[in-house]
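REQUEST FORM: STRUCTURE PREDICTION
Request ID: SP-0412
Submitted by: Lab K.M.
Chain count: 1
Length (residues): 142
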Amino acid sequence: MFTPKQQEEIKKLKEAGVSILGISKKLNISRNTVYKYINAPTGEHIGKDGRHLGFKGYLLDNEQQIVKRFLKLEGNCVNLAKDIQNDCPYQICLRTLQEFCRQYRHQVIKKPKKSKNKKPYRKRSLSEIVDNSKFVPVIPEF
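STATUS: Completed
RESULT:
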């Protein structure tokens, strides 16, 4: 995938009147690749198959804001997906979001969890269990 700068270079060469074959030879890429980037909307990310990247492109365009939200949410991608759902015009794919955020996972600082002061488990005898419970044994009469 070319950078937006390289995509713009292809479009400028075309506007300057250079043929598709001339552009492909100059940049050492195939003619089909040149067609793909010439027909693409300006400033949008294009995949290898010539289609718009959609959600991946959205992630690349808004990388800084997404990383800030990711770190604020302590690395929770599910909550991040819910958070960006209103802003994103594309369908959100959780796996794609997780893969995108993987490179920033080492920056996550987790807050220490509050420990619950539980008493340690100790074995109780059967008589303690019976005495402390509301169990009333019923003795059958004969």
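NOTES: The two ends are 90 Å apart (CA to CA).
Reviewed by: T.R.
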